[in-house]
Design brief:
Blueprint lengths: L5 H13 L9 E7 L2 E11 L6 E12 L7 E11 L4 E10 L3 E13 L3 E10 L6 E9 L8 E12 L3 E14 L2 E12 L4 E13 L1
Antiparallel strand pairs: 1-2, 1-12, 2-3, 3-4, 4-5, 5-6, 6-7, 7-8, 8-9, 9-10, 10-11, 11-12
């Protein structure tokens, strides 16, 4: 539990970055409390200034295991992006994660966002002789029918490959949403290494849109 003290410092960093960007789409923040680990994540996707095709994309996922013998993990990236169309972007930046360390990367993405659904798909490749190819995606259903309490569903997935499978996950959320707050049960599945060793973490989540 003491590892969760890092979260306020991460939030301060989010707000510091947000103040520099004029147009402000919501920033999703999520905390999952599971039987095996705590998991915190956030993402920012904003134009550098209003009307610009250039933008800034950043995401962070931080996992703290209950067992002291199990290492904690972090995956974070930051990119400058360029809007090709309303749905397609390209970008370049850096990534830091537990598996590969600090690397530069190139990425492209497709995004579809409206009042009912959000869909995001981002393939990327690390610029390194042993660099990973990564595919990150999520789908979110959040209907807006005028009721105070809305249903909420989200699935998020990631796969890392080098010459063979390195790491994958898919995370599932089902719950209720009120304004900018969502809560409900959660389950995460991880597949580690070439053999795909399975690790399951289940519990509950809280998500805020700031």
């Amino acid at each position: 539990m003491k590892h969760l003290i890092i979260i306020p410092f991460i939030l301060l960093n989010i707000f510091a970055n947000a103040q520099d960007l004029e147009k402000k789409p919501p920033i999703p923040l999520e905390l999952m409390v599971g039987n095996e680990a705590y998991r915190f994540q956030f993402s920012i996707n904003r134009p550098l200034f209003e009307g610009s095709r250039f933008g800034f994309f950043s995401q962070l996922a931080y996992k703290v295991n209950h067992e002291k013998t199990a290492p904690n993990s972090i995956n974070t990236e930051a990119m400058i992006t360029y809007k090709l169309t309303n749905h397609f972007n390209i970008g370049a930046g850096t990534r830091l994660n537990t598996a590969s360390g600090f690397r530069t990367l190139l990425a492209t993405s497709y995004g579809l966002f409206n009042k009912k659904i959000s869909l995001f798909i981002q393939p990327s490749i690390e610029i390194h002789k042993d660099g990973f190819f990564e595919l990150f995606s999520f789908f979110e259903w959040h209907p807006n029918n005028g009721k105070k309490i809305q249903p909420f569903f989200r699935v998020q997935a990631l796969t890392d490959f080098n010459k063979q499978h390195v790491y994958s996950y898919h995370n599932w959320r089902v719950g209720a949403k009120h304004k900018n707050f969502s809560i409900g049960p959660a389950i995460n599945f991880e597949y580690i290494g070439p053999q795909g060793i399975v690790n399951t973490n289940y519990g509950g989540f809280i998500m805020l849109w700031l």
